[in-house]
Input
Amino acid sequence: MVKRYYQKEIETMPVEEIKKLQSEKLVKQVKHVYENVEYYRNLMDEKGVKPEDIHGIEDLHLLPFLTKSDLRDAYPYGLLAKPLSECVRIQSTSGTTGRRVVAFYTQKDIDLWEDCCARAIVAVGGTNEDVCQVAYGYGLFTGGPGLNGGSHKVGCLTLPMSSGNTERQIQFMMDLNATILCCTPSYAAYIGETLKEQGYTPDQIPLKAGIFGAEPWTEEMRRGIESTLGIKAYDIYGLTETSGPGVSFECEEQTGMHINEDHFLAEIIDPDTGEVLPEGSKGELVFTALDKEAFPLLRYRTRDICVLKREKCSCGRTFIKMSKPMGRSDDMMIIRGVNVFPSQIETVLLKEGYQPNYQIIVDRKNNNDTFDINVEMNPEQFTDTVSGVTALEKSLAGAMKTMLGINPAVHLVPPKSITRSEGKAVRVIDKRKLHD
Amino acid sequence: MSLKQLTIFVQNKQGALVDITETLAKHEVNIRALSIADTQEFGILRLIVNDNDTALKTLSDEGYLLRTTDVVGVKIGDAPGKLSKALKVLDENAINVEYLYAFMARTEKHAYVVLRVADNAKAEAALENAGFHLITDADVLKL
Output
């Protein structure tokens, strides 16, 4: 018999009990953070809030927010709540210019994170009979390690492929009969296209389900992946700051992601005023980690815009559901699964001797992100040969790759040729239409 | 001994060459020779004109990215085998040609070749030693 839940008692807990559990955990967690994290203690003191003021989730709004810039200010140890001797791992975001986030984990943190990923795998029908191909990147990126751990917990035969080397992915998938694929949706689409080119039809592909996340994708893309691979494609959400993938996950209903509410307390706020909005409103998603020991962020602003809805789900889970993120409340872009800030591009340009006049053009062709940067040429660097110009482009693309972790196509254009509107350049043109 | 070439960075888009040539025409700059190297995204336009200073100033004022480049101008007979003879001289002296283009004179039965090499002086000496006549900006005015 197929197991429907990984931790049934928690995943189907009556809402009132979940709230009670959250309240108990919140009170303890605030005390833990206040006692051990000077940075957050100062924020609470500034706001005049003491741990004793927090009696349950109804008092959550009294706590100060944390933002990415707090993480930068406190880098690397400022938000650590456990001695390093009790930490066993770090994970980090792709960003490299002062935006880097290093998250710490105790063994218990890793266990709970892997439980969350295991819930996601079981929710798509995974059991110990399955072969789970993890094609997220391994290493500092949370995707690979998270799903790898979840797959172990479920007892799947785990193929720790990491991303890339598509020929090898396909060989292992076909030879070892992989039934569940975990990777970014764009990579899933790419694997699907490659299989199709090689003449495989969906019924020849052993996969039955896929867990895809770490970047925005549309319903249309979901349908495309489902038809080329002959699978059901499920969404998963998470961020390094809160542990990694598995903060929320889709069930068979595919109508939003259940948030693992026993570990994460979610709020929707108005990104401009910080005011908490009622359930069902569209706003910025904020998370409070209830169980994390080493890196317990309270009221962390994700900058993702979405909607929370608690409604009876046919899967039997009682956890509240979040919509796919519908956008960002800052200027971050996610390109090929990697977080990119325009400020990183400016930093590289200035370092390489260019004026910060540029335009980023992101598009999606054949389900893959294209990433072009037009940069105004520095007159001093102009030579009279084509090879001279292309060498400049190549070298700048190399510097961008070092900074961003992904390779843009750099195009040098004449000075002052990039459109300026009202004196301010249009920096980013995102043609992907990822949000309805 | 030198020949000045104007080198202009052009975005590969419709009308780019029209704008440049119109600007030059308006200021009575006459184009003697022209070559363009292009890629999908940009082109590099190279011009030998009768009035470098005016061309440089007017195009800069219009916002173009351009510079002057010293190139080698050499006069060759207008007959089969003459160009290859000149190139052979450079080859024998291990001088690499980055690019070249040719033009004809209106008045005399001669062809002229504009050469871009790494070391102008070396190329000029080699060509002169082999009996070639080099041309300068002053010569261009008379052509």
